[in-house]
Amino acid sequence: MKLLGIESSCDETAAAVVEDGHRVLSDVVKSQVDLHRPYGGPVPEIASRSHLEVILPVVEEALARANTKLAEVDAIAVTNRPGLVGALLVGVGVAKALALAARKPLVGVDHIAAHVYAAWMEQSPPPLPYVALVVSGGHTVVYRCDRPFEFVEVGNTMDDACGEAYDKVAALMSLGYPGGPTIDRLAQRGNERAFAFKPPLADRESSDFSFSGLKTAVRYQITGENHKGRAPLVLDDITIANLCASFQRAVVEGLLAATLRAVDAAGARAIVIGGGCAANSAIRMRFTQECQRRGLALFLPSFARCTDNGSMIAGLGYHEWNRRGADDLTLDAIPTS
Ligand code: KG4
Ligand code: ZN
Predict the structure, then answer these.
(1) Ligand 1, pocket residues at CB < 6 Å
(2) CA of 134 to the centre of ligand 2 (A)
(3) Mutate to test the pocket of ligand 1, among 136, 186, 244, 306 (most ligand atoms within 8 A of CB)
(4) Of 79, 263, 268, 285, which residue is least crowded by CB atoms under 10 Å?
(5) H helix intervals, the chain
(6) Residues 95-135: tens digit of each pLDDT
């Protein structure tokens, strides 16, 4: 079965053709990051307008690269939740129009669940139960998965998402947008113990996060506020590298602690990580170490599948379609998870 997958929930317009949920025939991603860079983050109105301009050429390119005509696809999967509502509406509208015109089944897909699927779509499924961590510019969620494709949320962020915190902390040091990859790179030259930032855990028992305190702690460290009148830090290369390394250590230790808490509670046998921040080198390294130590299987997406893409939507769409059938044309964009 060939599915066309369409993704437009945030700032990437993407489409892909995937066979049987795992054979990727094409995967076209048009990033809007250059459009949002001057604003330091995704601007919803700019995102929807840009999706509108490029979505049909992106879909056409995905079909062409897969050497497939629209008439030959078996169903159309589309991200319909969660995300920026105006951005989602563009993908959902196009998917409905194509489904109606070509008389194809339509399948709405959850974007966060698709990020989990992206980590293992080309291999055997993780053993059950497993715990999934999705860390991106818009989401920071921990799921427990006891049955295939059934996700129970056991942790979420109470304020910023992980990637958003990376981007905002990078902005404090004028490192440009998106800040995640830059902080990751600079942290490798810094001392992660130079500044004692606390991990972004909401409390001792839950798997919930709060990134605002950590973000403020970095700001205060830089400006000298709340540091008994200390002068602002001089942001030379070493200080910036030390701030990046110390911030990153706090983030990664917090993500790891929250995930392991969920693993213990679920008796999980594996951890699956997805989302833009799953590209982070420290996250990949620390989780690899800890999973080896505990004998847990670890599933990480390829770098290309960390960020938003259409193949994870077409892939998960195939399983959703098998599991619960198609949606009808009342399928709507739902901004919240
Ligand atoms: O998944 P994604 O493309 O967008 C959402 O669905 O939200 O993730 C983008 C986010 C940005 O905030 C970016 O700074 C972050 O992922 N990111 C990283 C890294 N690469 C991208 N964060 C930390 N380390 C990285 N290497
Ligand atoms: Zn995403």
Answers:
(1) 10, 136-138, 163-164, 166-167, 178-181, 184, 275-277, 279-280, 307-308
(2) 9
(3) 136
(4) 285
(5) 33-36, 44-65, 85-102, 111-118, 162-172, 179-187, 212-223, 237-266, 281-294, 311-324
(6) 999 999 999 999 999 999 999 999 999 999 999 999 999 99
